[in-house]
Amino acid sequence: MATIEHGTYMDGEAMRLMKQKGTYWVPTLSAGRFVAEQAKIEGYYPEVVRVKAAKIGPVMQQTFVEAYQAGVPIAFGTDCGVCLRGSNALEFQLMVEGGMPAMEAIQSATSVTARVLGVEAELGSLTVGKRADIVAVAGDPLEDITELQRVVFVMKDGLVHKRPGATRD
Question: Which of 20, 26, 95, 135 is 20 to 30 A from 110, comparing alpha carbons?
Fold first, then answer.
């Protein structure tokens, strides 16, 4: 399956073609937000980079709004190599802020991305026979998507790696 990552400056024609061809977009909004925020810090980036970095976050967010409204297929990704460790779940919040319902944002990171990567037979949904990769939060992420930024339980391949009250993460 074809994907386009970032796609920051996509126009309506690119969006139309992606929809027509079934090409998935991986927007990486959290990376754009991060670099835009860091650009506010004097000296964080060289001045030549700072100007572009300051503009990119809002541009990426607006492109997301337009692409989602146009029906472009969207898969989850963060490009958080540029972000702070552990901040990946901010992507959900930015997608919801861009108009995507919380359940669609969650599915973009689970069943949709599994399908895009061709691993839907073993990942992407809680189904008998699939790998037991699960996260849990204390609240309802459909009511408050930022709950996904506060994971309290992690199971990977059926092994618990984090649980309430545990001393290690």
Answer: 20
